[in-house]
Design a protein that fits this description.
It contains eleven helices and twelve strands. It is an alpha/beta fold. The longest helix has 17 residues. The radius of gyration is 19 Å and the shape is globular.
Length: 322
């Protein structure tokens, strides 16, 4: 089934060339289909790159997806044109009266700052609070995951001795939880970050379930027991060349950076990286949409499940079913 996007979203042409089924607003108006209403809070500086990556990741499901983009009003984006933001994005103030089947909160290049020092932290806390009542399930990515763990559970991030950068092996835990159905025992995922949410604190939190972990990169995937909050510490959505582009960028700025681990064949930056994580990325997003959004959300638009109905719908997803 297709992804519904605004008529002239620039990444549409790329998606269509990749045989990803997209429909514009005009065509969608003539279809009697209850789309899943997904909002993406895009905190990344290169917003169009992130749009493409996430829309591609959301496309591998038979469910029809209606995507909206949110931006924070308390921060001025310097890397995306005002015209693009005005045309395709809405502020939280404009969207806060809506309800969504799913919300995605991206990473952001602010991880070396304290959370409270980020200029849009207060606004983000409002969005976290709003998501408790207006969103069925929220999918947090990288810094967005660290921020979500801090807001919801008080788990503070800490700096790493050097940037965690490259592809790392992760082992599946709690295999019977639907979010990791179809995963191999061991799988690769990209990471690019200077901080971490300590694994021992995540394991110690009784409200969280760890689903995948790396001996090097720590916890990759965890979730609240009711499935309402998903936390992904890496970047499953990254393209083949995203780590390469970050590596070249940091070199050009004379920043301390090492070759991304397990990424280039023979550790040679002149070799084209192998795309070895795409299938697990697709599986992760499809499982989230199917089990934690579609099966937990009501049919009628704007109607969020009350606690009793939500708990019943998500009962098979708790660790008690393992």
């Amino acid at each position: 089934m297709p992804i519904k996007i605004l008529n002239d979203l620039p990444v549409r042409e790329i998606l269509e060339k990749e045989n990803i089924f997209v429909v514009d607003e005009n065509r969608a108006m003539h279809q009697d289909i209850r789309s899943l209403n997904i909002c993406i809070l895009n905190l990344m500086p290169l917003k169009e790159d992130t749009e493409l990556q996430l829309l591609r990741s959301l496309s591998n499901t038979p469910l029809q997806i209606d995507v909206s983009f949110m931006r924070v009003s308390s921060h001025k984006s310097l890397n995306t044109s005002p015209n693009h933001l005005n045309r395709f994005y809405h502020t939280f103030e404009e969207l806060k009266d809506n309800t969504y089947d799913g919300l995605i909160i991206t990473g952001a290049p602010v991880e070396q700052m304290e959370f409270e020092e980020v200029d849009y932290w207060s606004e983000l806390c409002e969005i976290f609070k709003w998501s408790k009542t207006n969103v069925t399930s929220t999918f947090h990515i990288c810094w967005g995951a660290q921020a979500g763990l801090y807001y919801h559970y008080g788990i503070q991030k800490r700096p790493l001795s050097e940037k965690l950068f490259g592809l790392f092996e992760h082992r599946v835990e709690n295999r019977k939880v639907p979010l990791v159905r179809g995963f191999d025992d061991v799988f690769l995922m990209p990471h690019s970050r200077h901080t971490e949410s300590p694994s021992q604190e995540i394991h110690a939190c009784k409200d969280l379930v760890v689903l995948a972990e790396s001996a090097v990169a720590g916890v990759f995937l965890c979730m609240s027991r009711d499935g309402k909050n998903i936390f992904v510490m890496g970047h499953a959505e990254y393209d083949r060349l995203t780590l390469h582009n970050e590596y070249v960028r940091d070199l050009s700025k004379n920043l301390p950076i090492h070759i991304p681990e397990n990424y280039y064949p023979d550790d040679d930056p002149d070799n084209t990286p192998r795309l070895t994580w795409r299938s697990h990325c697709n599986n992760l997003y499809s499982n989230w949409l199917d089990y934690y959004v579609y099966q937990a959300t009501p049919y009628k638009w704007g109607q969020i499940l009350d606690e009793e109905r939500k708990n019943k719908a998500l009962s098979e997803l708790t660790t008690e079913s393992i």
